[in-house]
Amino acid sequence: MRDAEAGMGFYAEQALPRILDVACGARMARPLRRRVCGGLVGEVVEIGFGTGHNIPFYPQGVTGVSAVEPSDVAWRLAAERVRNARVPVRRAGLDGQSLPFGDDVFDSALSTWTLCTIPDAVAALRELRRVLRPGGTLHFVEHGIAPEGDRRVRRLQRRLEPLNKRLLGGCHLTRSAPDLLAAAGFTITALDVFYEEGAPKFLAAESLGTAVSR
Fold it and tell me: Helices H, strands E: what count in the chain?
C-alpha cells in the first residue's frame, strides 16, 4: 500500500504537471484562451495558473498578474513564459481556497479549466469575490457537466468521473461552473456554453464568460 501511495504521490507531484503542460498547450485551446483573456484590465489574480499558457493572451490593459499555483513543478515549467511576459507575473499564492491578499485589491480575475479540480470550488470563488475590487470582473472558461439535453454524455461523465479524478489530479467531469458561480455570489454577465471542437464530448462541455460580484 505504501508503495502504491508513493507511486501516486510521484505521479501527482512530478508527472502530472508535465502531462498537463502538454495537454493544456494544445493548439485548439488557444482561441478559447484569447477569448477568455479579452477585456482583462489592471491588476489580475489568476487561480490555477498552471504552466503559464495564458501569458501570451493577456491584453494591453493588464498591468500585472498574481499567479496562484500550488505545484512547484508547474511553476518551474512556466519559467520561460514568465520571463518573456509583457507584464510582471509573480507567484503570489498556493491555494485558491485561501488567497493571501487583502480585500478589494484586484481589478480582474482569471480562471481557466481550474474549478474542476479545486476541492472546494465555491470557497475559491468566494475568495475571488473578496479580493476583487467593486465592479471587478471574473473571466472564466471551464469544462464540466454536459447540457441537460445530452443525457447520454452525462451518463458517461458520471461513469468516468472516478477514474478521471484519479488520473487527472481530482478533475471532476460533472461540475457546473455557472451553478458554482451563483452559489458563491457571482452574477454572470456573459456566458457561452458549447462543446470544444476536436475533443471527446465528455471532456469538452465548456462554459466561457464573465461574472461580477452581486
Answer: 9, 7
